[in-house]
Amino acid sequence: MNSLYYFAILIVPTIILGIWAQNRVSSAYKKWSQVSSRGGIRGYEAADAVMRSAGITDVQIVEIPGHLTDHYDPMHKRLALSSENYRGSSLAALGVAAHEAGHAIQHKVGYKALQLRMSLIPITNFASSLLPFVIIGGFFFGMFGLIKLGVLVYLVLTIFQLVTLPVEFDASRRAKLQLAGLGIISEDEKKGVAETLTAAGWTYVAAFVSTLANLVYLLLLSRR
């Protein structure tokens, strides 16, 4: 079997899955960002309420530019929300804000998967910096040494993406529970939050499947 066959059965399907996942999260976010919550609470207020309910008062909530650039930085205890989610009061904005607050709760309680992901960040960043050399050298010039390097790079990335899955799913679970438990959303508003977070979760699944497929692809090439 040649490399084109491996590429067709391993890489192409993951590209399609990635596109589908991105379209799904974009569609869900667009849909529910147009539905305002009855309480009118803004994203940063929801994130603050969720964290305070868990006894967290030392995390800074900041507004950042960009679309869906929201993230929690455990190293600096900084919860960053894109403007549309920081200032917005839509069900999508509340879901995203509470999700990031869920990461802050994970950090406070010492959630093992989050701790493991944090410990993997340095080596993952280093592996990611080698990707251009792996792609250019390994795929276009067929350099065997770079293919073996690519195996190591994608092994690191696959492990990181695998660890990321429970971290993200758990943060979404906490977000839905906290928003409802604190009365920030009502029973019939749960659907909008759930659909937004479920769609976002598929992007992490797609990322894991993609890195795993690339790892298997390079392993097969290295054994030829």
Structure overview:
By secondary structure, the protein is mainly alpha-helical. The protein has one domain (3-222). The chain has helices spanning 3-32, 43-53, 83-86, 91-109, 112-140, 144-181, 190-222; strands spanning 60-64, 71-73, 78-82. The chain has a 3-stranded mixed β-sheet with strand order 1-3-2. A hairpin with a 4-residue loop joins strand 2 and strand 3. Helix 2 (43-53) packs parallel to helix 4 (91-109) and helix 4 crosses helix 7 (190-222). The longest helix is centred in the last third of the chain and has 38 residues, at 144-181. It is elongated, with a radius of gyration of 20 Å. This is Zinc metallopeptidase. Keywords: Membrane, Transmembrane, Transmembrane helix. It holds the Pfam family Zn_peptidase_2. InterPro entries: Zn_peptidase_2 (IPR007395). The chain crosses the membrane at residues 6-23, 130-157, 201-221.
